[in-house]
Amino acid sequence: MLPPKSPKLNGAVERTQGTHTEEFYEVHDVAWTLAALNRQVRAWERVYNTVRPHQSLDQQTPLQFLQAHGILAAAGRPPSHMS
């Protein structure tokens, strides 16, 4: 949920939802069970974050962007607050 009166955040959320609708929900046969849908969404998230280039990241994937900026080690896992 977004905080009240946050139009800058709302645009980013709406854009992301539009991308997911156009590139996932309208393209794939979406499962009717929650377990199967969760598997499909996780697979899509892997593509979205590691394969699909993003215009806002200068045609890099989010993974490439994080690695290039030293936020994520090249072969590592994202930093965790649980460590």
Task: Walk me through this protein's architecture.
The chain has three helices and no strands. The protein is an all-alpha fold and 83 residues long. The longest helix is centred in the first third of the chain and has 19 residues, at 7-25. The chain starts with 6 loop residues before the first helix and ends in a 15-residue tail after the last helix.
Secondary-structure topology with pairs:
Blueprint: H1 7-25, H2 34-50, H3 62-68
Task: Summarize it.
The protein has 83 residues and is mainly α.
Q: Based on Cα principal axes, name the global outline.
A: globular
Give the N-terminus to C-terminus distance in angstroms.
27 Å
Structural class: mainly alpha
Number of strands: 0
Report the major sheet.
none
Tags for this model:
83 residues; mainly alpha
